[in-house]
Amino acid sequence: MSRPPESQAAMDQLLSTLDLEKLEENLFRGVSPQVGWQRVFGGQVIAQALMAAQRTVDGDCFVHSLHAYFIRPGDPAVPIVYQVERIRDGSSFATRWIVAIQHGRPIFSMSASFQVEEQGLDHQVGMPPVTQPDKLMGEKEFKELFLAQAPAAVRKYWNQDRPIEVRPVSLVHYLTKEKLEPRQDIWVRAVGEVPPDRHYQACVLAYLSDMTLLDTSLYPHGTSIFDPKLQVASLDHAMWFHRSCALDDWLLYTQDSPSSSGARGMTRGSLYTRSGTLIASVAQEGLIRKRADE
């Protein structure tokens, strides 16, 4: 599937951030793309931490789950050091503990579990019926129609060349402040070619899994992550990798938010191939606090 050159450039930049520098055994260093953000995108830290861990396990052992906590905002101007602890290496499973460090302090921690492939019982829940991505508005048309009157933060977010294209099945939340059901369906696609290496594929999948989740928890409140009256940030992130996927086509990201309370919103997500294969499940809780001056 061909991609425009500028899209491949965005994907190449993401892949470059995943090519961590090895400093010492179990110690790696990653950098952030200079795109003008005040803090590092959480999906990038998850993906880099996963890559660091993968480089300490045998090649026939693949990630099946990760559980992460965002401790402090990441500084995009400073490299991130990833320290990996080899908790266990068994005959079938391996466990790693990863800490991301900046300015001498941890900003993120994650545990990840890896498994040698084996056969077993197999079932999945079906993909919901939704409009196919080819029949939805593309990002170019979206920008032309909606961005002119959008707040500066929204324009800045959408005008960046990004390695992942997003096509929401519904655009209602962009057009109204009405309180909506806490669920959404979004098609996502890597806009450049992802290497056939399963370790890179898992990292790109982890990267995109952090996109759009917090928005879903804000739907019932008639607002979004771009509301300047809100302080919004990911707090934790969990992911389960069910089946491998080449990431060469659209994926459906179905999301629902069962609860928000205590200035936190919780969202669950499922990632399906276009043909309906469930490849990953996600859960995340985020901070959705009203700013003190409001």
UniProtKB/TrEMBL annotation:
CDD domains assigned to the protein according to its UniProt record, in alphabetical order: Thioesterase_II_repeat1, Thioesterase_II_repeat2
InterPro entries documented for this protein: Acyl-CoA_hotdog, Acyl_CoA_thio, HotDog_dom_sf, TesB_ACOT8-like_N, TesB_C
Superkingdom classification of source: Bacteria
Acyl-CoA thioesterase-like N-terminal HotDog domain segment(s): 37-115
GO molecular function: hydrolase activity
Enzyme Commission number, as recorded: 3.1.2.-
Keywords: Hydrolase
EC class name: hydrolase
Domain Acyl-CoA thioesterase 2 C-terminal: residue ranges: 160-287
Family the UniProt entry places it in: Belongs to the C/M/P thioester hydrolase family.
Protein name: Acyl-CoA thioesterase-2
